[in-house]
């Protein structure tokens, strides 16, 4: 009786077994693997993909249309799952209202800075430093793109996802961040493995997360011999980015509050950066964790599903 009702639902519904085979569906998908509908075709076991979660964000190819869905999971005693899939058009209203009110004011100085960079670029070419201007201009363009997204408060935002190589993102952010750290007499290190560490995601959003965490580490630095390191690695299933600093560190109570909206340890902070970063990583079906010891420093770990199985030696 329930199966018949589920099949008539007006949104995508799937009942799958532990082999990921579709037993029944509200669409014309039965006796095929649920894996075939995933974009990309991630090679996960039943427990690794679903785990103990009650919901997960997945990109599905249904009726030749790729779309992001929030998938709510109901388990049965027969080791089967009911998957209720709702189009992911949710936007955090509070964050978007703040972003919309600030966007125009932020854009004006960005335009001025970009103009001055373009003016001095010929002189930087003569000294062989034009790469710094190019990276800075790209980052200003990226900031403008982010502002454009937030300005579309009432509209679903099309966030393009593709294969993203984390090594390349880390190297670009490191180049941008290294110069800023040097101005504060803080040393930086970048360690990546030889193999490409590729994930499926939105490149601009992942850059935003990494840069935000690096800036947080720099702002927390209170030592003369400060050190911030970025490392990229992977195991059989997950890519991993770790950003460490030997700054002031934080108490366990502070760490618990870090992802709360509007909470900030900085006098000039908005309390939005880490909240947004965590949301971005979770939209990529990843995890963002923070470990910190007062007086010793902080480590931020980001784990994301690998696009392809690679060897991380």
Automatic annotation (TrEMBL):
Q: In the UniProt record, does the keyword GTP-binding occur? A: no
Q: Which InterPro entries match?
A: HATPase_C_sf (IPR036890), HATPase_dom (IPR003594), His_kinase_dom (IPR005467), HisK_dim/P_dom (IPR003661), HisK_dim/P_sf (IPR036097), Sig_transdc_His_kin-like_C (IPR004358)
Q: Which residues form a coiled coil?
A: none
- What are the record keywords, sorted? ATP-binding, Kinase, Nucleotide-binding, Phosphoprotein, Transferase, Two-component regulatory system
What region holds the Histidine kinase domain? 101-308
Q: Membrane-crossing residues?
A: none
Judged by the first EC level, this protein's enzyme class is transferase
- Top-rank lineage group of the source organism: Bacteria
> Which EC number(s) are documented for this chain?
2.7.13.3
Q: Which SMART domains match?
A: HATPase_c, HisKA
Q: Which reaction does it catalyse?
A: ATP + protein L-histidine = ADP + protein N-phospho-L-histidine
Task: Give the GO molecular function terms.
Answer: ATP binding; phosphorelay sensor kinase activity
Q: Which CDD domains match?
A: HisKA
PANTHER family in alphabetical order: PEROXIDE STRESS-ACTIVATED HISTIDINE KINASE MAK3 (PTHR43065:SF10), SENSOR HISTIDINE KINASE (PTHR43065)
Name the chain's protein: histidine kinase
Classification of source organism:
Bacteria, Bacillati, Bacillota, Bacilli, Bacillales
